[in-house]
Amino acid sequence: MPRYLVKEMFGPTLQGEGAHAGRPCVFLRFAACNLACTWCDTDFAAEGAVKLDAADIVARLLELDVHQARMVVVTGGEPTLQWDAPLAEALRAAGFRTHMESNGTHAPAAPVDWLTVSPKPQFHTGSLALVGQPVSELKVVVDDTVDEATLAGYEARYPSEHYFAQPCMTAAYPASLARTIALVQARPRWRLSLQLHKILEIP
Ligand code: SF4
Q1: C-alpha–C-alpha distance, residues 167 and 180, integer Å
Q2: pTM recorded for the entire structure
């Protein structure tokens, strides 16, 4: 039976970003990422992570999901490095909707209910690997490299109903917020996404 390197599981909480911001959920955070973005705000180090099988993960998420929202945000690190059919099926069988947050370097190896892709080509050109494949939502973190042409390029590359621009909150904030608002006003297919969990100071 496969085992997965899990950094943390927590909840109940709220999804903080994108089209499902504000929805109650629990979080599954895998350890490890294949990128190293300079402004990364996530601790995905293997140190402190634990190896669990799908049954362990489902049991813990069910414990955490005390209000039975049955939505799990699957993130990392980079979740596609470990996501597979046995875990996807175990979560589905337990009644969870799976919302994955990926950097777009790999397609998920097993189905998810919602796929958020957040490429980081300013650091890693391989982050555009899913170009041309439909994604549930595209979320671009706006730092000082992102401009209107960047957003137009994403629209051309990624077919999606949902485009979100989100200010980088670890570099040049609040200038990144002003830049993001201006970008969204200039390109109305895009919506502003804020990291609600940071603003509300919830996990
Ligand atoms: S892809 Fe995401 S988790 Fe990985 S280093 Fe970049 S910001 Fe951090």
Answers
A1: 6
A2: 0.96
Other CB atoms closer than 10 Å to residue 113's CB: what's the count? 16
Find the catalytic residue in 17, 20, 25, 27.
27
Residue 158 DSSP label: S
Query: Which residues, judged by CB distance below 6 Å to any ligand atom, belong to the binding site of ligand 1?
Result: 33, 35-37, 40, 42, 44, 76-78, 103, 120
Question: Look-up: residue for tokens 């957003």?
Answer: 151
Nearest to 121 by CA among 136, 141, 148: 141
For 86-144, the pLDDT digits (tens) are 999 999 999 999 999 999 999 999 999 999 999 998 888 777 888 878 899 999 999 99
List the domains of the chain with CATH numbers. Answer: 3-200 (3.20.20.70)
User: Rounded distance, CA 37 to CA 104, Å?
Assistant: 13
Tell me the residue length of the chain. Answer: 203
For ligand 1, mutation pick of 103, 116, 118, 141 (most atoms within 8 Å of CB): 103
Q: Are 64 and 10 in contact (CB under 8 A)?
A: yes
Give 130's DSSP letter: T
The dihedral through the CA atoms of 130, 131, 132, 138 has a sign that is positive
- Helix pair 54-64, 85-93: axis angle to 10 deg: 40
Check: CB of residue 157 under 8 Å from CB of residue 128: yes
Contact 98, 88 (CB under 8 A): yes
Options 20, 25, 30, 33, the catalytic residue: 33
